[in-house]
Amino acid sequence: MHIQPLEFALVNNLNGAQCKIIKHITRKKSADDYQKAIHVIEYWLEVRKRYTLPFDRLQPTAMSRISTELFIKENKLARTEAKVIRLIVNRPSDENLGTAIKLLVNNR
User: Fold this and answer.
1) CB-neighbour burial class of residue 9 (10 A; exposed 0-12, middle 13-18, buried 19+)
2) In the 8-state DSSP scheme, what is residue 78?
3) For the chain, which terminal residue's Cβ has fewer other Cβ atoms within 10 angstroms, N or C?
4) Each residue's pLDDT expressed in tens, for the chain with a length of 108 residues
5) Which residues are CB-contacts of 75 (< 8 A; sequence separation ≥ 6)?
6) Residue numbers of the domain that contains 38
7) Is residue 59 within 8 Å of residue 65, measured between CB atoms?
8) Domain tally for the chain?
9) C-beta of residue 88 within 8 angstroms of C-beta of residue 22
10) Terminus-to-terminus CA distance in the chain, angstroms?
């Protein structure tokens, strides 16, 4: 991997859930990696609702040093993985997290 998921998360001010999801999606070492990513997304939604956490504080800063597209390109991610990462990093919302889950379930 050219850009590590943790490096991408740190320089783009992502939260722990986003970092874990990206780690599991890019790793793909076992059939369970998508299931683990799905679990993290579901838990993120549950905690967000429990504490009414807004998504707007999760957006990468204008000073982001590694773009989402560069991360996808450098790590040679497949179409599904790229879509999920775009959804959880660039446009996190209840609807988009649900879409990310569906993409992962359909591509296990």
Assistant:
1) buried
2) -
3) C
4) 589 999 999 888 888 999 999 999 998 777 799 999 999 999 999 988 888 877 755 555 555 578 899 999 999 999 999 999 999 998 888 999 999 999 999 987
5) 1, 2, 3, 26
6) 5-106
7) no
8) 1
9) yes
10) 21
